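INTERNAL AUDIT FORM
Audit reference: QA-55
Scope: verify that the stored structure record matches its stored sequence.
Auditor: D.O.
Record contents follow.
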Amino acid sequence: MINRRVFGKAVGMSTGAVAMSLAGSGIASAASTVKAPRTATVTAPALTPGTHPSFRSPKQVRAGVLDVGYAEAGPPHGPVVICLHGWPYDIHSYVDVLPRLAEQGYRVIVPYLRGHGTTRFLSSHTVRNAQQSAIALDIIALMDALEIEKAVLAGFDWGSRTADVIAALWPHRVAALVSVSGYLITDVEAQKRPLPPQAEHTWWYQYYFSTERGRTAMETPESRDGLCRLVWDTVSPTWDFDDATFERTAAAFDNPDYAAIVIHNYRWRLGLADGERRYDRHERQLASRPFISTPTITIDAERDPFTAPGNGSSYRDRFTGPYEHRTLTGIGHNVPQEAPTAFAQAVVDAAGL
């Protein structure tokens, strides 16, 4: 999930709202270029979450150390948007966003991250490593495999962190950025310092995963699914999802490397598990909290317990390019699935900054 250090700067919730509209027929032609002017947008009716129950069959492509599963829609030569999911979620967080953006002329790609869904490691000898730069390089490899030079990156949770890392280290590959919860690049040394008790309480599962008992839970389907559903209920208190919605995503947790990837991610972020030396150079750069110059829209979700107060002020100085911030009232952690119209609109608008 998100960076505990950002949340720990203060405990509480931000408030406020931003009026959202999704591009209608006026933007359809303008969307043929990433630099489409936002003045072409018009108000369109909101899309009801859950309108699209599933994707077409995901595709597969060999990219780097992985065989990546992904969903895709939209014209093959349209401007590219890559949407990145978090934990404990999967590509279905974007099940309503993908067709909405595809209708506007974007080529939309939603990959399963390593350890999720149909994404598999090509070799049994590859370290099951989930440090931030490794996951970011997976997406660079995916772009290379699909011959995509530059894309709009949009994400939440692990997806926000991954998009932030790419925008910071490889800005020439990023046309624009949509980052829920703002700047989530991890500083492992900073993560070792205690947070206020309320913040620590919110991160209960992170410490659970630091134990072998937590690992066993993630390796046991019944315990794993119960824990993940509890996280959904806790971090999205206003989202009225049904059993079928959760079970559709939980199928992605059956990946043979799921437990190893999740456990390593959280242990590495606390400094309890080693990364790989091949990524040391990137991690040293990220530890300096590099600026992001890419055109960016950040989103805070008011009902997400990880959202820090201050309406984005805690991370505003990290973004030096064209920038907007939005706070979504009444929305929890899984922003693209809870508020697909608002998320899709942010993508369209970021592409036009």
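Auditor finding: record pair retrieved intact. Residues 4-45 have pLDDT under 50 and may be disordered.
Action required: none
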